[in-house]
Write a structure and sequence with these properties.
With 774 residues, the chain is α+β, with helices and mostly antiparallel strands. The protein is built from 16 helices and 40 strands. The protein has 7 domains: 4-91 and 305-405, 2-Layer Sandwich (Phosphorylase Kinase, domain 1); 98-289, Transferase(Phosphotransferase), domain 1 (Orthogonal Bundle); 433-461; 472-538, Immunoglobulin-like; 545-609, Immunoglobulin-like; 618-694, no CATH class; 698-765, Immunoglobulin-like, CATH 2.60.40. The strands form 11 sheets. A 7-stranded antiparallel sheet has the order 1-2-3-4-6-5-10. It has a 4-stranded antiparallel sheet with strand order 15-14-17-18, with no helix packed on it. It has a 4-stranded antiparallel sheet with strand order 22-21-24-25, with no helix packed on it. It is elongated. Keywords: ATP-binding, Kinase, Membrane, Nucleotide-binding, Transferase, Transmembrane, Transmembrane helix.
Length: 774
Amino acid sequence: MKPLLFGKYCLLERISVGGMAEVFRAKPLNTPEFKGYLALKRILPHLAEDDEFITMFVDEARLTVQLQHPNIVRIYELGQFQTSYYILMEFIAGKDVLTLQKRVRKRKETIGIANSLYIAQRIAEGLDFAHRKTGENGQPLNIIHRDISPQNVLVDYLGDVKVIDFGIAKAAVQSSRTQVGVLKGKMGYMSPEQVQGLPLDHRSDVFAIGTVLWEMLTNKRLFNGENEFETMRLVKACEVPAPSELNPEIPPEIDQIVLGALQSDREQRYQSAGHLAQDLQVWAAHLGGNADRLSNWMREVFAEDLEEELEKREEYGLINTAEDVRRLSLPASGHFDMPDEDDGPKTEIWAGEPPSPAQDDVAFGAEHTVVQAGGFDISQLDLIEIEDNVRELKKGPPPLPASVTGAHQRISSDFSAEGTKRTFVPEEPKKDKRVYFLGAAALVLFFTFCVATAALLFQLVDKDETPSVDAGSVILSVTPSENVEILLNSVKQTGELPLRIDYLGEGVHVVEASAPGFETAKVEVEVKPDTVIPLAIELKPALKEGTIQTKIPTLTGLKVWVNGEERDTNDVEPAFKMPVGVVLFEVTAPDWKPFRAFLEVEEGAEISVEPRLEPVGFDLNIEGEQNSVVRLDSKRLGVVPVKIDKLNPLDLHTLEVTNRGGGEGVSRWENFVGLPLLAEETLVADFNKPREVKKKRDYGALVLDTGKDWWSVWVEGVDTGLITPITKDRSLPLLEGKYTIRLKRGYQEETLEIQVVGGETLEIAKDLPFQYKP
């Protein structure tokens, strides 16, 4: 076809035509600085006569226009030009998945496992955003696509994936009249509940994603009956073979993902598109699936199409005004050409005759009525230039000139206005020579200011501060998405969710998300050059809390533990916010017995606790004959009775008792004392009935490691005051024999049965993670 005028837009070529609409590549007139394109979908005349359909169509567009996500084609405007309803959308230079499938079948290839997983992952991410979208009142909008199919998924030459036709299929299904052909060819992508006419939820879209993925992996149709009735029967029966049965290269883990999305019973299916996307992302990344790989594949498979696209851009770049359109559309006869015969069915572009060259262009453009504005502004669009080996994104193009915006009357910018027709005809500005003079003077001053400013900035800017071209990006989504505050490396971020954060340097960045009534989530994300990382954060509801106020003693190596987790003790009197319920509060320090307390925390209440720690050790009383002298480790302590305080069980002590009285010479009693003798509390040095003497060789040593979590050590029912780990350089001496070792913490207890051999070291390493259970 030749270029056509459509109010303030130029229709450059017809991209496709279907049962409900035809889609054109378009560009705004009189905007030579605008190098990009728009997609204009015009509702077909037979549907434009259906008032009920149009009402539903407008309602659905008001929902769809809110779906701003990297994997959903954005809608900018729902409008009416004369009697033709249209939608203005983001233009995608690429192919739909159906075209991809046809091309690889012709080449006797497949799209590839990695590419298929990546495409399905992006579809699922876009749908998950739509499914979770809420209105201004916080209530779910319950958006369901209902028509996910290869035709409704676009892949561009840059490797980006976009879902299209949100809401239109739903509006068509709800119309009171049966639209011939609306569901034709799509029956094979419905869910079992959809073909049975049951109420639908977002899991119906999950099934459709599974169908599209199955077909991309196998390059076969999944539900393909001879007619629609047979296809419906196949979908309802839902007998799905594993993709690996047709493609042996598919790992069994991917089979599980695909079959998990294609369960006939939706209760057994993936319960959200988000969960499906997470599993797909893991395997797509594992196999190297990403935008760059998909882009390279698209450029190779569609090399001729890409070359044609580049040629079209050069050709269409010459069309900027209505006069350009007329010049290209009017032959020597002077009659306006409609689309060529080979362009498909003819559909009228105007209700009446096309404008003549004499007709005023501005008045013609003013016949536009914007039924619903989606915030279309050229300054908000990204201009994408497609090159063979370069991906370049230009941001911030100039806004639409007054020649376009002046003829464009917006009814609403917040999607709340009624679809009332309005006509806006701009006044012809009066020409005044003084305006030209003042404008020229202002232009000279402005130019001088810019030159001076640029020179100054050139001297001041440090070249080292130039942003790296190897920066990466993060696309962040948060559930729930209302009243969320985002911090990136402790710096507040602004913008609507999902939030794209660009120009991030290579390395690890910390993202924090918080919202009233929810716990703050902190996530570390590693950014690599020229990559876009999707990051989904799900906030957990905040628990009801109380406060534990404590005073910490000054001890070397002291640590505070709450419910088994170490807490910061930089303050002398720290306060800990804790959930309501019974809390385990512990304090440990080397050579000190652990302090533990179970505290009942109530909502909004404050509990004060001052831990008092006791040194590790056993008290031992020594008794014997009168005037007997007691020595410990060769140090004289006095005559019996003697009390020895805090003998550390990690040390093996030499105890000596002597008596020089009675004229019968010196009586001597000597023993090596460790556990379990230390736990006896009293030792009697009876020279007439000497007890069995223990030598150093009678003791073995215990080394005990329980992994990252510590436990209190009990020996034969006695609390040693020690906690794990007991290391080799400070092992626990034990008399030769069998022992029951109990490891206790909180309400939990672990038991070890050991055999100690004199003169040997017994080393035990057992990973015992601790998890507090009230």
